[in-house]
Amino acid sequence: MVLAAFSLVIGAEGAWVAVAPEAEQGEPQLAVKEMDRGGMDVAISLPGIERSEVEIGGEVYQQFTIPGGIETDEVGYPSLPAITRLVAIPGGGGAERSRGTRQLDRFARLRGSGHPSGGAVGDRWLCCRGPVLGPRGV
């Protein structure tokens, strides 16, 4: 598993940590940027994360969460903030990840016929100033 790296200046417990200085507290946004018969470009933006302290077994740990997001829960790995969104992919289509031109926007190229019919795929995106990561095998 490759992890996205990011740097933070952490203040008081329970603090909002903006990814960009002008970012306001809020949930991540997903928007369709472009769609045609060859596929669609989807942009996911993350304004920031929330930080808190958690005590486990007498040790204090830093916990990072995304408003409206989830945490990864694979045994043996750290609990990481993640975003889960359902995206309809036409039958026979697939998903491909790529980096956007802006540092804080990440784009996924979904290949298919461009029609909104077909199955839905749940995808998890890890975030913050690094490459966007999908679930294993995508």
TrEMBL record:
Q: Which domain of life is it from?
A: Bacteria
Q: What is this protein called?
A: Gingipain propeptide domain-containing protein
Q: Which organism is it from?
A: candidate division TA06 bacterium SM23_40
